[in-house]
Design brief:
The chain contains 13 helices and 9 strands. With 303 residues, it is α/β, with parallel strands linked by helices. The two termini are 33 Å apart. Keywords: Acyltransferase, Cell inner membrane, Cell membrane, Membrane, Transferase.
């Protein structure tokens, strides 16, 4: 019942101007910052690990900015689910699409590297309005929202969805269809195909799939970045140049290169990375999980 009521409210809100939605999303984020204590602790821990040179006041301001833009991303998904193509085309500025168009003409498989910024779904919508792609998704526990997420990712074009639980063989087969694949490897997944690779100088358990799949299929890797712009300005999605000399025979070096690139982009908009994820929950042997309550005193500033 709650899910259906929430969906009904989101549907009503999608008619509002983006500037109004943005203000509401900022307010929602401020409430989350105040009351979502567990997630706030995760964000504070991540920021302390990744930005140790910032003083406590600056990190706390960054945490609040993150929750505000996170609130926007949650609320503004309604645009991706129900707004017309014409409205979305006005709101989302796409840069570098000609690079992807040209790369597709070569016939080479393509991996679109989409890091987990809060605007990642906006980037996905922008891509599907211009291209048929393969997208790997995580099933939602709530069936109502699971259907909505799937609907949002298949509204435009002829998209192919793969569950995160599908095999590598399924991914490779889908790539041979000629569709670029949106790939998001920068989260802490439970898998043996991962290595500890530095991220902001912290060992992060990182899957090596970008290197392995690119080497297996001969795919080009093209980075993509989604940004949520202030207020009613909309969004931007940028396709970068395909990486040269990638992959190599060294999956660990390739993974380190990926993390270094993601880190460089995070520094341009640190509030928009997905800090509510426990990126460092898997630790090298002998190290303490930084998110444990025993570490809370080091990260939980007074509210």
């Amino acid at each position: 019942m709650f899910s259906r009521a929430a969906v009904a409210l989101l549907w009503i809100l999608h008619f509002l101007p983006l500037s109004v939605l943005a203000a509401l999303g900022n307010g929602l984020g401020s409430l989350l910052y105040r009351f979502a204590k567990k997630r706030r602790h995760i964000v504070r821990t991540n920021l302390l690990l990744c930005f140790p040179d910032l003083n406590e006041e600056a990190r706390e301001a960054l945490a609040l900015q993150h929750f505000r833009v996170l609130g926007r991303s949650m609320l503004e998904r309604n645009l991706l689910w129900w707004s017309s193509r014409e409205r979305l085309m006005r709101l989302i500025r796409v840069e570098g699409d000609e690079k992807l168009q040209a790369l597709k003409q070569t016939g080479r498989p393509i991996m679109l590297l989409f890091p987990h910024f809060v605007g990642i779904d906006i980037g996905g919508a922008a891509v599907t309005m211009h291209h048929d792609i393969v997208c790997i998704y995580a099933e939602q526990s709530d069936p109502v929202f699971n259907r909505l997420f799937l609907h949002g990712r298949t509204r435009f074009g002829n998209q192919q969805l793969l569950s995160r639980r599908d095999s590598l063989r399924a991914t490779v087969k889908a790539m041979k269809s000629g569709r670029p694949i949106c790939y998001q490897p920068d989260m802490n997944f439970r898998t043996r195909d991962a290595v500890f690779s530095p991220f902001f100088g912290v060992p992060a358990w990182t899957i090596t799939g970008l290197s392995r799949i690119a080497r297996l299929t001969g795919a080009a890797v093209m980075p993509c970045v989604s940004r949520i712009l202030p207020g009613g300005e909309g969004y931007s999605v940028e396709f970068g140049d395909a990486w040269e000399n990638f992959p190599t025979e060294d999956a660990e070096a390739d993974t380190r290169r990926m993390n270094e690139w993601i880190e460089s982009v995070v520094r341009t908009m640190p509030e928009q990375y997905y800090w509510v994820h426990r990126r460092f929950k898997t630790c090298p042997p002998g190290e303490e999980n930084p998110y444990k309550k025993s570490a809370a005193a080091r990260t939980e500033a007074p509210s």
